Amino acid sequence: MKKPDGKVVLLGDMNVGKTSLLHRYMERRFQETVSTVGGAFYLKQWGPYNISIWDTAGREQFHGLGSMYCRGAAAVILTYDVNSLQSLTELEERFLALTDSASADCIFAIVGNKVDLTDDSALPPDENRPEKSVASCSSKVRKQVRAEDAIALYKKILKYKMLDEKDVPAAEKMCFETSAKTGYKVDYLFETVFEMVVPIIVRQKAEGPPQTVDITDYKPAKRTKSGCCA
Ligand SMILES: Nc1nc2c(ncn2[C@@H]2O[C@H](COP(=O)(O)OP(=O)(O)OP(=O)(O)O)[C@@H](O)[C@H]2O)c(=O)[nH]1
Ligand SMILES: [Mg+2]
């Protein structure tokens, strides 16, 4: 198997469409999924580099694995469902801390998926605008999460990481809305991220392999009679 040069990780609540986005991008189709167990990855050749793209499980029971998958990541794609404000809130409350193990110069993208389910106008609630009749909207619903909410989260991430807005890509550039079902903006998302991770991969390669712990060197601490480690 080819050795990956860099790593991109998808994080987000269960059911937001992480696996479907990856299927759409890598296999060019939308297919039925089952909720991910643990994690899985694809390798994508990008120029001279092999980028591993990790699909993680959003289910709470696998939460502990998240920071392991993020270790050394050059980019993290934080995914939510545009029809669930809770899924955006979860990114801040549950997933952001998992990225502490990512590369120090990790790129963050915030992705609102399932835009195909929303009303085409996709406008936020506006008191001055008359409500559209439900009948005229067919089965589509008004988007629950506004682009501004995602941009606000991006800015919170910069604060959390103690990064200056001047030194990172603009929030508007890093917040995406996609549909894994129709393919809307899926290529654009992944390709924008890949372009941005190339300089990080180049730096990581120049610095050599990351520090790893060799478990064959591990010597268990001696136990004292009381059962404590000496
Ligand atoms: N309409 C619509 N449905 C989608 C879209 N993306 C995913 N889905 C559906 O949403 C459900 C969940 O999709 P998954 O890709 O399995 O979600 P996930 O984020 O990988 O979920 P976990 O693996 O549990 O973390 C499936 O029924 C998908 O068919 C989309 O863009 N539009
Ligand atoms: Mg999945």
UniProtKB/TrEMBL annotation:
Its membrane topology: Lipid-anchor
InterPro entries referenced in this protein's UniProt entry, alphabetically: P-loop_NTPase, Rab20, Small_GTP-bd, Small_GTPase
Top-level taxon of the source organism: Eukaryota
Catalytic activity, reaction form: GTP + H2O = GDP + phosphate + H(+)
SUPFAM superfamilies listed in its UniProt record: P-loop containing nucleoside triphosphate hydrolases
Signal peptide annotation: none
GO biological process per UniProt: protein transport
Keyword field: Cytoplasmic vesicle, Golgi apparatus, GTP-binding, Hydrolase, Lipoprotein, Magnesium, Membrane, Metal-binding, Nucleotide-binding, Prenylation, Protein transport, Transport
Gene Ontology CC annotation, any one: Golgi apparatus
Subcellular location as annotated: Cytoplasmic vesicle membrane; Cytoplasmic vesicle, Phagosome membrane; Golgi apparatus
EC number(s) from the headed UniProt entry: 3.6.5.2
Broad class of where this protein is predominantly found: membrane
Keyword Transport: yes
Family membership noted in the UniProt record: Belongs to the small GTPase superfamily. Rab family.
Protein name (record): Ras-related protein Rab-20
